[in-house]
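[Meeting: bench + compute handoff]

Bench side (C.D.) handed over the final construct sequence. Compute side (W.E.) agreed to return the predicted structure before the next meeting so the bench team could plan truncations. Sequence as handed over:
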Amino acid sequence: MLTRLEIRSFAVIEHAVFCPGKGFNVISGETGAGKSLLIDAIGLIFGEKASKNLIRNDSTSAFVEAVFDCEDQVVKRIAPIMEEFGIPFEDGTVIISRTFREEGKSIARINGTSVVLNQLKRISSELIDIHGQNDNSRIFDPSVHIDMLDAFGGSEVLDLLQAYREKLKIFKDLTTSYIEANKLASASSNRIDYLTFAVKEIRDADLKPGEDEALSTRKKELSSMARNKAMISDAVSLVSGTDSNGQTPSGRLSEAVRALNKLADKDPSFEEYVSRLQSISLDLEAYSSDFLKKSSEYTFSEDEERKINDRLSKIYELESKYGKTIEEVLLFAQEGEKELNDIEEASSKAASLKKQLRDTEADLLTVAKELSSERKKAAEKMSLLITEELKDLQMPSSSFSVKFGTRPKERYFNIHGIDDVAFMFSANPGQPPMDLSATASGGEASRIMLAIKNILSRADMMPTLIFDEIDTGVSGLASLSIAKKLKSISREHQVLCVSHTAQLAAASDHNFLIEKNTDGTNTFTDIIPLDEEGSITEVSRLLSGTDDKESRELASKMIEELRA
């Protein structure tokens, strides 16, 4: 429940602290005192748009903070939401603050963590329900009517709903599996032929991880050996090859030696040249022999080189089709084999799943019909009770009912079952019931809402209910009925009500007075908690506008009767 509301620099409120208690809290005051400001401030906590026009004229920003003390059932409901948004949540305390400034900036925090407005609305909607003459209370939202009916139906409905949802999950899982199996079973012959060819091509290649790297390394080695042997062959050719006359360098040197020998016979000084040329000739012959031996060391098989090139070409071809690496190509083959196996099994699996689906759908429909039947019993009972409540609220000719519709076959099953549910209302005999949200006038809406709230109060999980002058435009007798209903609702919820009628103020557990004062320069609005004497004084004012003895005695008697 709301335990504390602090307001600063908000319109005519400089600083005020409002601490409502359990049960029924009524806020009253003179017209124009600023009662609506309290609801406006709470509206900011609810995520409503902040207007810079609401900032007090002697300030540059306004601030509102609400503190909620949550009971266990509320903690269980909102804890997952807080965790989802990354908001700390301890001891069941939720502190929501909102600051907005002149330049239009607004900052919202929950338990000290900054949140966006959508998050603020999501959490505050689990803590507060505001109802006024012109709002869209949850009761008038058709999308939640089925949840309200189920909550009213209690365990008889909720147990069936749980059983239905468990069956629904199985049904949905089976549906997903059937669609996948049927899709596989319907695989085209082209797909099957492609996978069969691809797997065979990869398996026939007998690829080994890392094989391409080893082959590339060996190819480089062979290429290097071929280049070296070619260079040695060139050297041998130059040293021992023959010219156009068929002579080798060594042969030509021999001829030169013979010519020089003749000269040496005549001139001994040529003997040295003869000796040196003979040495060079011998060296050339030795080099040629050595080069030939060296060349023989670079032996490799051209067949090996061809096989390596062919193998690498095959690997590159497979990688271009099925993966960037040998590992990816092998994985493709593995997955292809699995898919072919799945396709082979899919037809029988799809047939089996189809039968399971039919059986599960039949079971689901049986539970859904049982759920629908229990809902209709609960709806009949709820309709009678709410119609009686409307009579108590001075609407004797009106009636309340619940309309059921069966969902179309194409969207038969959802989390609520096969039912579409809407609350209906008729104000007068002979008038056909119409959707509640479209038929009720302002005054009627307030009383219908109270009738429903009173019947559903034990099932409704909303901790704090706020009513903004819902007694406007109703008679004194109707106000008395409204007061009694609010008192009844407050036994299960914290109720905050801004009111201008004595009946509601007299029935409350806690009275607060909104009072506006001025110092001649500025205007100030205060929220004052009233003690017993203060409550009598305020009820007396609301009754007669005076505080005389007779009015106070009447007020005291009314308080005694309504608070009993």
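W.E. noted at the follow-up: The first strand starts at residue 2 and ends at 10. C.D. will use this when planning the next construct.
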